[in-house]
Amino acid sequence: MSLKLTAGLVLASLIVLFAVQNAEPVEFRFLIWTFALSRALMMFILLAIGVLLGWMMHAVSAYRERKQPAHEGGLHERRAETPRDE
Fold first, then answer.
1. I want to staple 68 with a disulfide (CB 3.0 to 4.6 A). Which of 14, 57, 74, 83 is the partner?
2. Residue 9: which H helix or E strand, with range?
């Protein structure tokens, strides 16, 4: 068995074990809404939201860095003038 397959199976097993151990429903209230979800599902939803927000913030940061002019320290900085051997 390859290392990637083994690592994937171990990770999948841990995720299933986590979900089974945290299957009891938990009631959540947000403003006027009340709903019940399993604790594991809610944690996975919050993880996905966190990953999505992190990815979006990174994308905005990278976009701003690309748009910044070279003289302000952007991605395309000027090359240092080096004396040429002639």
1. 74
2. helix 3-21
